[in-house]
Design brief:
With 236 residues, this protein is α/β, with parallel strands linked by helices. The chain has helices spanning 27-35, 64-74, 90-101, 111-120, 158-163, 221-235, and strands spanning 6-10, 12-15, 21-24, 39-43, 79-82, 106-109, 141-142, 149-153, 167-170, 172-173, 185-190, 195-199, 206-209. β12 and β13 form a beta hairpin. The radius of gyration is 17 Å and the shape is globular.
Protein backbone atom coordinates (compact mmCIF):
# COMPACT_ATOMS: atom_id res chain seq x y z
CA UNK A 1 0.00 0.00 0.00
CA UNK A 2 1.37 3.42 -0.96
CA UNK A 3 2.09 5.67 1.98
CA UNK A 4 -0.32 8.60 2.24
CA UNK A 5 1.21 12.07 1.91
CA UNK A 6 1.31 14.29 4.98
CA UNK A 7 -0.36 17.62 4.17
CA UNK A 8 0.51 20.57 6.38
CA UNK A 9 -2.38 22.99 6.89
CA UNK A 10 -1.50 26.35 8.43
CA UNK A 11 -3.60 27.11 11.51
CA UNK A 12 -5.72 30.26 11.60
CA UNK A 13 -6.21 32.40 14.74
CA UNK A 14 -9.86 32.93 15.65
CA UNK A 15 -12.21 33.41 18.59
CA UNK A 16 -14.36 30.42 19.67
CA UNK A 17 -18.02 30.69 20.63
CA UNK A 18 -17.05 30.87 24.30
CA UNK A 19 -14.79 33.87 23.49
CA UNK A 20 -11.62 31.86 23.98
CA UNK A 21 -8.80 32.51 21.52
CA UNK A 22 -8.01 29.50 19.32
CA UNK A 23 -5.77 28.55 16.41
CA UNK A 24 -7.68 26.12 14.23
CA UNK A 25 -8.69 24.98 10.78
CA UNK A 26 -12.10 24.62 9.16
CA UNK A 27 -13.52 21.11 9.05
CA UNK A 28 -14.21 21.19 5.32
CA UNK A 29 -10.51 21.86 4.72
CA UNK A 30 -9.41 18.99 6.94
CA UNK A 31 -12.01 16.63 5.49
CA UNK A 32 -11.07 17.51 1.92
CA UNK A 33 -7.52 16.31 2.55
CA UNK A 34 -8.78 13.11 4.18
CA UNK A 35 -11.27 12.49 1.36
CA UNK A 36 -8.53 12.85 -1.25
CA UNK A 37 -6.14 10.44 0.45
CA UNK A 38 -3.87 12.71 2.45
CA UNK A 39 -3.13 12.95 6.16
CA UNK A 40 -3.87 16.45 7.51
CA UNK A 41 -1.29 17.92 9.87
CA UNK A 42 -2.12 21.23 11.56
CA UNK A 43 0.91 23.54 11.39
CA UNK A 44 0.70 25.85 14.40
CA UNK A 45 2.66 29.05 15.09
CA UNK A 46 5.53 28.71 17.52
CA UNK A 47 5.35 32.13 19.19
CA UNK A 48 3.96 32.46 22.71
CA UNK A 49 1.30 34.98 21.67
CA UNK A 50 -2.46 35.42 21.51
CA UNK A 51 -2.70 36.42 17.87
CA UNK A 52 -6.26 37.69 17.99
CA UNK A 53 -5.10 40.39 20.41
CA UNK A 54 -2.59 41.75 17.86
CA UNK A 55 -2.72 43.18 14.38
CA UNK A 56 -0.30 41.39 12.03
CA UNK A 57 1.93 44.45 11.71
CA UNK A 58 2.17 44.71 15.51
CA UNK A 59 3.20 41.09 16.05
CA UNK A 60 6.79 40.58 17.30
CA UNK A 61 9.12 39.19 14.67
CA UNK A 62 9.90 35.48 14.70
CA UNK A 63 13.11 34.61 16.50
CA UNK A 64 15.69 32.27 14.99
CA UNK A 65 14.55 29.49 17.33
CA UNK A 66 10.87 30.01 16.47
CA UNK A 67 11.75 29.76 12.78
CA UNK A 68 13.71 26.57 13.37
CA UNK A 69 10.76 25.10 15.26
CA UNK A 70 8.46 25.89 12.33
CA UNK A 71 10.92 24.28 9.93
CA UNK A 72 10.87 21.11 12.02
CA UNK A 73 7.10 20.83 11.57
CA UNK A 74 7.16 21.62 7.84
CA UNK A 75 9.91 19.02 7.39
CA UNK A 76 7.33 16.41 8.41
CA UNK A 77 5.08 17.37 5.48
CA UNK A 78 4.90 16.33 1.84
CA UNK A 79 2.78 19.32 0.83
CA UNK A 80 1.37 22.57 2.19
CA UNK A 81 -2.17 23.90 2.09
CA UNK A 82 -2.59 27.60 2.92
CA UNK A 83 -6.27 28.02 3.85
CA UNK A 84 -8.59 30.98 3.65
CA UNK A 85 -9.05 33.41 6.49
CA UNK A 86 -9.24 37.07 7.32
CA UNK A 87 -5.57 37.99 7.78
CA UNK A 88 -2.13 36.44 7.85
CA UNK A 89 0.93 36.82 10.03
CA UNK A 90 4.67 36.50 9.61
CA UNK A 91 4.54 32.81 10.48
CA UNK A 92 2.29 32.23 7.43
CA UNK A 93 4.74 33.84 5.04
CA UNK A 94 7.73 32.13 6.65
CA UNK A 95 6.10 28.69 6.33
CA UNK A 96 5.24 29.35 2.69
CA UNK A 97 8.72 30.60 1.82
CA UNK A 98 10.32 27.60 3.49
CA UNK A 99 8.00 25.27 1.54
CA UNK A 100 9.17 27.01 -1.65
CA UNK A 101 12.80 26.42 -0.68
CA UNK A 102 12.00 22.72 -0.28
CA UNK A 103 10.17 22.61 -3.66
CA UNK A 104 7.12 21.39 -1.78
CA UNK A 105 3.71 21.36 -3.52
CA UNK A 106 1.60 24.27 -2.29
CA UNK A 107 -2.10 25.04 -2.68
CA UNK A 108 -3.26 28.46 -1.51
CA UNK A 109 -7.00 29.06 -1.09
CA UNK A 110 -8.67 32.50 -0.97
CA UNK A 111 -6.59 34.49 1.57
CA UNK A 112 -3.92 31.83 1.04
CA UNK A 113 -3.69 32.90 -2.59
CA UNK A 114 -3.58 36.55 -1.54
CA UNK A 115 -0.70 35.80 0.83
CA UNK A 116 1.23 34.04 -1.96
CA UNK A 117 0.80 37.13 -4.15
CA UNK A 118 1.82 39.37 -1.27
CA UNK A 119 5.08 37.48 -0.83
CA UNK A 120 5.66 37.68 -4.59
CA UNK A 121 5.23 41.45 -4.42
CA UNK A 122 7.44 41.74 -1.32
CA UNK A 123 4.38 42.61 0.79
CA UNK A 124 3.81 45.94 -0.94
CA UNK A 125 0.27 46.90 0.04
CA UNK A 126 -0.11 49.15 -2.98
CA UNK A 127 0.28 46.05 -5.15
CA UNK A 128 -1.79 43.52 -3.18
CA UNK A 129 -4.77 45.30 -1.73
CA UNK A 130 -5.31 43.35 1.47
CA UNK A 131 -7.11 46.36 2.91
CA UNK A 132 -9.36 47.34 -0.01
CA UNK A 133 -12.85 46.02 -0.64
CA UNK A 134 -13.83 44.65 -4.02
CA UNK A 135 -15.54 47.17 -6.26
CA UNK A 136 -16.76 45.00 -9.11
CA UNK A 137 -19.91 44.06 -10.95
CA UNK A 138 -20.15 40.70 -9.18
CA UNK A 139 -20.87 40.28 -5.48
CA UNK A 140 -17.87 38.08 -4.69
CA UNK A 141 -18.82 37.49 -1.05
CA UNK A 142 -21.67 34.96 -1.13
CA UNK A 143 -21.15 32.20 1.39
CA UNK A 144 -23.98 29.77 0.67
CA UNK A 145 -24.25 29.62 -3.13
CA UNK A 146 -22.79 26.59 -4.91
CA UNK A 147 -21.83 28.74 -7.91
CA UNK A 148 -21.45 32.52 -7.95
CA UNK A 149 -19.72 33.29 -11.25
CA UNK A 150 -17.58 31.81 -14.01
CA UNK A 151 -13.85 32.18 -14.50
CA UNK A 152 -11.81 32.10 -17.68
CA UNK A 153 -8.74 29.87 -17.52
CA UNK A 154 -5.63 30.90 -19.41
CA UNK A 155 -3.91 28.64 -21.92
CA UNK A 156 -0.50 27.11 -21.20
CA UNK A 157 -1.02 27.08 -17.43
CA UNK A 158 -0.95 24.26 -14.90
CA UNK A 159 -4.52 25.05 -13.92
CA UNK A 160 -5.65 24.60 -17.52
CA UNK A 161 -3.82 21.28 -17.69
CA UNK A 162 -5.53 20.11 -14.49
CA UNK A 163 -9.15 21.06 -15.22
CA UNK A 164 -8.89 20.76 -19.04
CA UNK A 165 -11.50 23.49 -19.59
CA UNK A 166 -11.49 27.08 -20.81
CA UNK A 167 -14.17 28.16 -18.34
CA UNK A 168 -15.54 26.82 -15.06
CA UNK A 169 -18.06 27.91 -12.46
CA UNK A 170 -16.84 28.71 -8.95
CA UNK A 171 -18.15 29.72 -5.55
CA UNK A 172 -16.95 32.99 -4.01
CA UNK A 173 -16.49 34.08 -0.39
CA UNK A 174 -13.94 36.89 -0.43
CA UNK A 175 -13.95 40.61 0.34
CA UNK A 176 -10.38 41.26 -0.82
CA UNK A 177 -8.52 40.43 -4.00
CA UNK A 178 -5.13 40.38 -5.69
CA UNK A 179 -4.59 43.36 -7.98
CA UNK A 180 -1.37 42.29 -9.67
CA UNK A 181 1.64 39.99 -9.43
CA UNK A 182 5.31 40.42 -10.24
CA UNK A 183 6.76 36.98 -10.97
CA UNK A 184 3.73 34.71 -10.81
CA UNK A 185 1.60 33.56 -13.73
CA UNK A 186 -2.03 34.63 -13.72
CA UNK A 187 -3.94 31.50 -14.69
CA UNK A 188 -7.58 32.64 -14.40
CA UNK A 189 -9.76 35.76 -14.35
CA UNK A 190 -13.36 36.25 -13.25
CA UNK A 191 -16.00 37.62 -15.61
CA UNK A 192 -15.46 41.10 -14.22
CA UNK A 193 -11.70 40.99 -14.55
CA UNK A 194 -10.47 40.00 -11.09
CA UNK A 195 -7.49 37.68 -10.77
CA UNK A 196 -8.91 34.30 -9.73
CA UNK A 197 -5.87 32.01 -9.89
CA UNK A 198 -2.09 32.32 -9.86
CA UNK A 199 0.78 29.86 -10.10
CA UNK A 200 4.55 29.79 -9.75
CA UNK A 201 6.17 29.28 -13.17
CA UNK A 202 9.37 27.78 -11.73
CA UNK A 203 7.78 25.24 -9.39
CA UNK A 204 6.10 21.94 -10.24
CA UNK A 205 2.98 22.68 -8.18
CA UNK A 206 2.41 26.04 -6.52
CA UNK A 207 -1.12 27.24 -7.21
CA UNK A 208 -3.35 29.85 -5.59
CA UNK A 209 -7.10 30.01 -6.20
CA UNK A 210 -9.46 32.73 -5.06
CA UNK A 211 -12.47 30.44 -4.62
CA UNK A 212 -12.97 27.45 -2.28
CA UNK A 213 -12.67 24.12 -4.14
CA UNK A 214 -12.42 22.28 -0.80
CA UNK A 215 -16.10 23.08 -0.17
CA UNK A 216 -17.22 21.94 -3.66
CA UNK A 217 -16.08 18.31 -3.69
CA UNK A 218 -19.61 16.91 -3.35
CA UNK A 219 -20.82 18.48 -6.58
CA UNK A 220 -18.05 19.91 -8.78
CA UNK A 221 -15.74 18.01 -11.13
CA UNK A 222 -13.10 20.75 -11.47
CA UNK A 223 -12.77 21.17 -7.70
CA UNK A 224 -12.09 17.45 -7.41
CA UNK A 225 -9.48 17.61 -10.16
CA UNK A 226 -7.63 20.43 -8.38
CA UNK A 227 -7.49 18.60 -5.04
CA UNK A 228 -6.61 15.31 -6.76
CA UNK A 229 -3.73 16.98 -8.64
CA UNK A 230 -2.45 18.56 -5.43
CA UNK A 231 -2.44 15.27 -3.53
CA UNK A 232 -0.78 13.47 -6.45
CA UNK A 233 1.96 16.11 -6.54
CA UNK A 234 2.48 15.60 -2.80
CA UNK A 235 2.89 11.85 -3.27
CA UNK A 236 5.99 12.47 -5.39
Amino acid sequence: MQKKPMIGIIGRPDIASDEDAVVCIWEKTRRAIVQKGGIPLLVLPTQNLIYEELRPKDTPRLTIQEKEDLKSVVDCCNGLLIPGGYKWYEYDTFIYQYALEKNMPVLGICAGMQMIASVDNMNREEEVKGNAKNDTAIDHHQREQKYVHSINIMDNTLLKKIVDKNEIQVNSKHNYHVQTTTNLVISAYSEDGLIEAIEHPKKEFVIGVQWHPETMLDYDESANKILDAFIEACKK
